[in-house]
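DM between two lab members

TW: hey, do you still have the Alpha-carbonic anhydrase domain-containing protein entry open?
JB: yeah, one sec
JB: this one, 138 aa:
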Amino acid sequence: MNGPEKWASLSPNYSLCNMGKAQAPINIVTSDVVLNNKLKPLNAEYQDEVDGILTNFGFQIAIVFDKIKGIGDISIGMRNFTLKSMHWHAPAEHTIDGIRYPLEGHLVHYDKDGKMSLVAFFYEYGRPDAFIKQATYI
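TW: and the structure you got?
JB:
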């Protein structure tokens, strides 16, 4: 197995994966979560129908959108981030209360200064995901 729990053992170059405190993969412990009432809502506005290139990078499957325009934005406070790509990890990269989900999706956004904002979401087994089903029929 070569999932996130094994990253540190794959190469001496990845040894920090076992020692660090602020990098992936992380375990979100819900009993330790602290609500920050000062945070503003995450506002997202994406186009419904877009063109993208479905690509297998060997370590992830991704859809890459227009590198200049992207396909929409999220606003965090006063800063706008444009969606440039999305990709998936199977099994999920992160865990919640030690539970690793079968699949995790990442929406990768960049602002005008090149700073990244990533929105992650987990999949459970069940109904087929309408977006993935549509994307595979391209």
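TW: got it. The domain at 31-135 is CATH 3.10.200.10 (Carbonic Anhydrase II). The beta strands are 27-28, 43-46, 53-56, 61-64, 72-76, 79-89, 95-96, 99-100, 103-110, 116-123.
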